[in-house]
Amino acid sequence: MHDAGTVDSALSLLRQHLARPSGIFDLHAALAALEQLVDVAREKADQRASILSVILCQTRPLLLDPSFQQLLLKLVGDKEKVSVAKEIQKVSQAIAAPLPAKG
To answer: End-to-end distance of the chain based on CA atoms, in angstroms?
Structure first.
């Protein structure tokens, strides 16, 4: 198990939140995880602290935007999880889409 105070473990926690299907995605928990990641990166003087701070500042106002999860996934997600999340979202949208009316 990772040390809860490392940048990599904080990033992993954020990625876990972001990888959830959109129906159970908790945007507030994801934002809190991003804030924690920035705090730990600053505390540890990690080289990623600056870019993570910019990501937080630029995405915080978009919290209620429908693309918030996908935006963060693109910015901080690992490539495999981003790919899987996109496929899940496509399937979910296809299932939720209304059938065309027959006429």
So the answer is: 58
What is residue 86's predicted lDDT score, i.e. its pLDDT? Answer: 74
Q: Which two tokens stand for residue 54?
A: 């910019």
Q: Give SS3 for 59.
A: helix
Which residues fall within 8 angstroms of residue 10, CB to CB, at 6 or more apart? 4, 33, 36, 37, 40, 41
Give residue limits of the domains in the chain.
7-96
Buried/exposed 4-14: b ≥16 CB within 10 Å, e otherwise: eeebebbbebb
Q: What amino acid occupies position 98?
A: P
Torsion angle of the four alpha carbons 47, 16, 18, 89, in this order, in degrees rounded to the nearest 10: 140
The owner of tokens 């945007």 is 27
Mean pLDDT, 10 residues at a time, the chain of 103 residues: 74 92 92 97 95 96 93 87 75 73 61
**What global pTM score does this model have?**
0.76
Pair 74, 86: CB distance under 8 Å: no
